[in-house]
Amino acid sequence: QQQVKQSPQSLIVQKGGISIINCAYENTAFDYFPWYQQFPGKGPALLIAIRPDVSEKKEGRFTISFNKSAKQFSLHIMDSQPGDSATYFCAASKSYGGSQGNLIFGKGTKLSVKP
Amino acid sequence: SAVISQKPSRDICQRGTSLTIQCQVDSQVTMMFWYRQQPGQSLTLIATANQGSEATYESGFVIDKFPISRPNLTFSTLTVSNMSPEDSSIYLCSVDSYLGNEQFFGPGTRLTVL
What we know:
The complex is a heterodimer.
Chain A: E1 4-7, E2 10-14, E3 19-25, E4 33-38, E5 45-50, E6 56-59, E7 62-67, E8 72-77, E9 86-92, E10 104-105, E11 109-114
Parallel strand pairs in A: 2-11
Antiparallel strand pairs in A: 1-3, 3-8, 4-5, 4-9, 6-7, 7-8, 9-10, 9-11
Chain B: E1 4-7, E2 10-13, E3 19-25, E4 31-37, E5 43-50, E6 56-57, E7 68-72, E8 75-80, E9 89-96, E10 103-105, E11 109-113
């Protein structure tokens, strides 16, 4: 049973455009929703994360939108650049004991930004 | 953020052998996690390692195949035992931040089993 569903699987965007990646989760107990960026041969790097008490979080060109009732969250990359070309993973977890707990990952989206 | 290093960064091993992967963190952390990322796939949690207690394994992963040690608050090892080509993956450790409000990953160990 896949608890976090991510779409699209791949995405091609022109430089300067907006990249949008969507995730849906099933477990209403999840309370931590991070996005990770992974370049080939590297470990995932934390990009931005959100908790259910806010509907949107913005850091630079990256924005997470969160819809608790729909159990969905999305990553928006504004003014996409070729350097943003990477694989993006959404994840979710239920925090406990001061930890973010065990992350459940989506299947990933391979983003390609064309110059 | 925590600085995490893993050794080895990559290895090619023969079927039936075992490999121990090390994870070192530059600060004391309570919980460390081990994930597996099969080629072109997403990340799957193998186990959670707390210092001073037995690791907690996820469904589909067993201690005999993936023994874990956690001798102190900055170090952990994962052993992949009796390897087969299906074990070819990237193995990643991760830790919670000092405040416990974020989770960070190491660079990974790329394992190829022939």
